[in-house]
Specification:
Elements: E1 8-14, H1 17-29, E2 34-38, E3 41-47, E4 49-53, H2 54-61, E5 74-78, E6 80-84, E7 88-92
Protein name: MmoB/DmpM family protein
Organism: Streptomyces sp. 900105755
Family: Belongs to the TmoD/XamoD family.
């Protein structure tokens, strides 16, 4: 399946100082990600899936981070949470 045929995944996060490291970590782990900054909101989109790795977020934050903290940052999303455990969150479409 080519990238052109994959459905778009989207995550909208509150734009804040606390979420800046989270957004940068997501960008690091998803090179195909596109970001759009709106007032108070950052829209992240990618074809197929978006992965959020706990270790990457911790490296950016400089502290421990629990994946449950993601709930404090997210405004909305397009797709399904196909995986959510202590180490990783994956948003994708389940076919």
């Amino acid at each position: 399946m080519s990238t052109g045929t994959l459905r778009q995944i989207g995550i909208d996060l509150q734009e804040s100082e606390e979420n800046r490291a989270l957004i940068e970590a997501i960008k690091d782990d998803n090179p195909e990600l596109t970001l759009r900054h709106l007032p108070g909101l950052v829209k992240l989109q990618a074809a197929g899936r978006i992965v959020i790795n706990r270790e990457s977020v911790e490296n950016r934050l400089g502290r421990e981070w629990e994946t449950g903290e993601f709930q404090l940052a997210i405004v909305s999303y397009t797709g399904n949470f196909s995986e959510w455990d202590d180490d990783q969150i994956v948003v994708s479409w389940e076919h």
